Amino acid sequence: METRQQIRSQIRKIRRNLTALQQTQAERLVTRQALHFIEQHQAEHIALYLSFDGEISTQSLINALWQQGKSVYLPVLHPFSQGHLLFLAYMPTTQMQVNAFGILEPQLDIRAVWPSEQLDIIFTPLVAFDQQKNRLGMGGGFYDRTLENWQQKHFIPVGLAHACQQVDMLPVESWDIPLFDILIG
Ligand SMILES: Nc1nc2c(c(=O)[nH]1)N(C=O)[C@@H](CNc1ccc(C(=O)N[C@@H](CCC(=O)O)C(=O)O)cc1)CN2
Ligand SMILES: Nc1ncnc2c1ncn2[C@@H]1O[C@H](COP(=O)(O)OP(=O)(O)OP(=O)(O)O)[C@@H](O)[C@H]1O
């Protein structure tokens, strides 16, 4: 069995090599599915992420949600609680900055912090997933911590991924949290 680190680097490489056309088509497919999922669940407060490293793009989904008047949130690396995320409101006017991983995130503003318990859906990035909806991320454990015991919380965690990110079986660790669903572009 391959190690988590081997799977990460393999899939990240494949993902980075998707063509612009493949990326655009996947974005269109996943946006349609996500809008349908949001409508089904009557979700109003929705956490997304800004794509990097070949991740399926969330840009057209975010634009559609803004048009519908939904509230969109993005993850921000917690300033002192290492390995934890905060979720901040994201609007077209939000001031952005580049974080330690080179990903754009809202500038920390206490007034924009939204408790994860009050989110309806958390759409998560992921590197690899399997049929059991196990999720392998970038390796920081950020979403594992956020999603801990999600069944007892209000929000639903849903992964967004390219089809090429699916693997037969992920080696699972005790802290890994299976997702409610994964939408494949
Ligand atoms: N778009 C997006 N945003 C996200 C995540 C994500 O996976 N995707 N995260 C999900 O958790 C958090 C950031 N987690 C990350 C963890 C590791 C690396 C990373 O690139 N690590 C480098 C080496 C480490 C370094 O540069 O210090 C690498 O593996 O090449 C990036 C993001 C929060 N925001
Ligand atoms: N709920 C948790 N509580 C404490 N530590 C955790 C928790 N979840 C994960 N960790 C720690 O975080 C580290 C990274 O975990 P893992 O490799 O599963 O991250 P990942 O799922 O790939 O990343 P991410 O969730 O950020 O996308 C592990 O060393 C693990 O010990």
UniProtKB/TrEMBL annotation:
Single biological process term from Gene Ontology: tetrahydrofolate interconversion
InterPro entries in the record: FTHF_cligase, FTHF_cligase-like_sf, NagB/RpiA_transferase-like
Gene3D superfamilies per UniProt: NagB/RpiA/CoA transferase-like (3.40.50.10420)
Protein residues bound to substrate: L50, E55
Single Gene Ontology MF annotation: 5-formyltetrahydrofolate cyclo-ligase activity
Binding site for ATP: R4, Q5, Q6, I7, R8, R135, L136, G137, M138, G139, G140, G141, F142, Y143
Enzyme class, UniProt record, top EC level: ligase
Alphabetic keyword roster: ATP-binding, Ligase, Magnesium, Metal-binding, Nucleotide-binding
Domain of life: Bacteria
Protein's UniProt keywords contain Magnesium: yes
Cofactor: Mg(2+)
Enzyme Commission number(s): 6.3.3.2
Catalytic activity of the protein: (6S)-5-formyl-5,6,7,8-tetrahydrofolate + ATP = (6R)-5,10-methenyltetrahydrofolate + ADP + phosphate
The keyword Magnesium is assigned to this record: yes
Family: Belongs to the 5-formyltetrahydrofolate cyclo-ligase family.
PANTHER family with a match to the protein in the record: 5-FORMYLTETRAHYDROFOLATE CYCLO-LIGASE, ATPASE INHIBITOR/5-FORMYLTETRAHYDROFOLATE CYCLO-LIGASE
Entry-linked NCBIfam families: MTHFS_bact (TIGR02727)
Protein name: 5-formyltetrahydrofolate cyclo-ligase
